Amino acid sequence: MACSLHVAWDDGLTSYNFGPQHPLAPVRVELTMALCREYGVFDRPNVALRPIEKPASDDLLGLVHDSDYIEAVKRAGATLEPDDRYCLGTSDNPVFPDMHDASSLVAGASVQAASAVWNGESEHAANIAGGLHHAMPASAWGFCVYNDAALAVAWLLEQGAKRVAYVDVDVHHGDGVQAMFYDDPRVLTISLHESPLTLFPGTGRPSETGGPGAEGYAVNVALPAGTNDSRWLRAFEAVVPPLLREFQPEVLVTQQGADTHALDPLANLMLSLDGQRRTYSALHRLAKETAGGRWVVLGGGGYELVQVVPRAWTHLLAEASGAEISPDLETPQSWRDFVRERTGEVPPLYMTDGRTVEVTPFEAGFDPEDRVDQAIQATRREVFPSHGMDPSL
After folding, report:
1. 65, 100, 124, 134: which is the annotated catalytic residue?
2. Which positions fall inside the Histone deacetylase domain (predicted)?
């Protein structure tokens, strides 16, 4: 399944940096790009690695953010003074020099990816440094200053898109994107995440289904801590494909946080790289089937910086290019040397966790005592009827 892929990249994306003690370290993106280069992902004839044409302008950011907030971000990046009103200068969102410039570059890269897909330049497009899905219209939130994911969706609507689907597989609820389109039936937001009972941001319950006139267009699958590959994929297959097939988006935008992995230090799901790879191929197929192949791929969370994120997102970009990387491959020695030099950590030796993932379809039978099945059924009962679908089938 060879596909054209536009990758928006500039070394300046690593300037989105909250400091050496912060979990969201840009080295994870640096290591991802290095591993992709080692495997020749960007050398494939159908892949275009493109510089970012321009950061998002104030007018563009204004599609999803208040002008007062944009000015506050600029001010904080110049003075390095906290601004409590806008949640700038918290432990989650420390101020850093030129914060606006770094954040608007990330946002511009995601809009560039959306533009490449919408204008037919490329079937798929990616900003692996993007996916900052928590930022709110008038505040920073959860390591996110500007919500590039929401901005990409809003830009597509401005161009005339009538149906955009946003699927978020980060371990955290995609609260900012949901909030910005909660009343808009042109946007279907689907988030699979760890339950708000055990994880930030404390939202994303199945009962959050959309505002008046958009009921059923916010979809939340809140999974219990400890959910593994087979159970997570069971939930995904029970909710995401049927809704996308019914909605028939013109563009599929996905946020690909890698923090569902068992090694992630900030969350409690138990996926492996092998389970995550299954997700990538499923989303690729769904983009082909339901959105005419138009797929915008964004990064997201992921705080195991060496063992997980680089391998996960290298598999993701390879999948989006239409030529996956075998999970059985050894990681290149030159990349391992770079990892040691750059981080001082021991790099992974293989591109897999060595898991075999078996999934039993939800349609094969519902276990009322199983907490994952309870989560699936809660979501289906809340949203399927709004789309004319029977939650029991």
Report:
1. 134
2. 22-318
